[in-house]
Design goal:
The chain is built from no helices and 31 strands. It is mostly beta strands. The protein has a domain of 58 residues.
Length: 395
């Protein structure tokens, strides 16, 4: 952790806007390079005076086109999945048409991948056997199925739906489980794809009956027509049950040195953990803490070689801290103290992209599970923070 080294986090200014405290600029150093992170601006993307909005996901199309799937309604209540689109790089947004495939359960949950042939692939969050996200009448982690089938859709970079099919995962080491998926689909070239899914395996619940999730890795050699089980990260360390939730909500990135890094959630208030693979995902290291608590991490290797991870922490209905943390070495060996750009209510889930030399992090500023007037908010919104992330060599 960077707390064991010299860390300079210089606060240049704090701006108070509507009760939100925003960090304006920080400087970090790892001895060989300096990282300057500054908040360029915060924009409102989706605004609602009467509905809670949460769970944003940025999807990049061709040119300046963007898609923004998000949830509308109280989490755990009558919630709908909608999308907005922009044709000018996010300066203006309009709702997608009612029949748009982007309104058909595309969300921050599920697995998203940008494939080498220009295709955008999306895997739904739940297997078809439990009826999709609308059909989950009981908690997903109690809906055990054998040989689940997953829905995978392919979109063009202009946004058209190209195919809508299913696949199975061969070689699963357990007879049945409750399944879900979050995160990323990596294109390793030559039709080889890698992703990480989640499973609640019967008998691995905690003593209180809450979730204790196993993250497992799957590989396709035929560009997504079928997948095979590769390895898994059990919800334990040194043979002992670990964390409030085990390891879940994985995010994947391929590093410049060829390693694959996976960062995982362990609970609403507990640290993110990470594992890495040096052999294309066949074997994985022992989980280690990043040092910072958060949920739903989103990794991105920036063009300047800095590794970014956006996320947030908190639990339902409580004020959140939304942030991005950075690894100057580009490998995640050390993570600097998070750069906080939002404090207040929200779902803590983020999505990010890099454009024009800036990191864009989408997040919610909303009541999440609570009525709007609980926080006396003038409106609910999805926003993004636009960050400048500048690395300079020292000496």
């Amino acid at each position: 952790m960077s707390s064991d080294r010299i860390l300079s986090a210089l606060l240049e200014a704090v701006q108070l806007t509507g009760g939100i405290v925003m960090l304006r600029e920080s400087q970090y150093s790892n001895g060989s390079a300096t990282l300057q992170v500054s908040l360029d601006r915060i924009d409102v993307l989706v605004r609602s005076e009467d509905k809670i909005v949460n769970f944003p996901r940025l999807i990049e199309l061709e040119g300046e086109k963007l898609i923004l799937p998000y949830g509308r309604g109280r989490h755990g209540g009558r919630e709908s999945r909608l999308s907005a689109f922009s044709e000018d790089g996010g300066r203006t947004w309009r709702d997608c048409a009612r029949g748009s495939p982007w309104n058909d359960n595309v969300q921050t949950s599920g697995v998203l991948g940008y494939l080498g042939d220009g295709i955008i692939a999306y895997i739904d969050v739940f297997p078809l056997e439990i009826g999709g996200w609308r059909g989950v009448a009981s908690p997903w982690y109690s809906r055990h199925v054998a040989d689940p089938s997953w829905r995978l859709r392919r979109f063009s970079r202009s946004g058209e739906l190209l195919s809508d099919g299913t696949f199975h995962v061969g070689g699963l080491p357990w007879q049945e489980a409750a399944y879900y998926c979050y995160g990323d689909l990596l294109d390793l070239g030559g039709g080889e794809l890698l992703s990480a899914l989640g499973a609640q395996i019967p008998g691995q619940e905690s003593e209180t009956g809450s979730i204790r999730i196993t993250t497992f890795f799957v590989r396709s050699h035929d560009n997504g027509a079928s997948f095979e089980y590769v390895a898994h990260i059990p919800p334990e360390i040194d043979g002992k049950p670990f964390g409030p939730e085990g390891f879940n909500e994985p995010t994947l990135v391929r590093l410049d040195n060829g390693e694959i890094l996976c960062v995982l959630r362990t609970g609403s208030h507990s640290p993110l953990y990470q594992v890495r693979s040096a052999d294309n995902g066949n074997t994985w290291s022992t989980p280690v803490s990043t040092g910072w608590p958060a949920v739903k991490p989103a990794l991105r290797l920036l063009r300047n070689g800095v590794l970014a991870c956006s996320s947030g922490r908190g639990s339902f209905g409580h004020p959140q801290v939304t942030h991005a943390m950075f690894s100057i070495d580009g490998r995640g060996e050390y993570w600097e103290a998070p750069f906080v750009f939002h404090t207040g209510p929200g779902c803590s889930y983020t999505s990010n992209m890099e454009r024009d030399g800036r990191l864009y992090v989408a997040y919610s500023d909303s009541s999440f599970t609570q009525p709007r007037d609980r926080y006396d908010m003038p409106y609910q919104s999805i926003k993004w923070a636009v960050l400048r992330v500048e690395k300079r060599a020292q000496g």
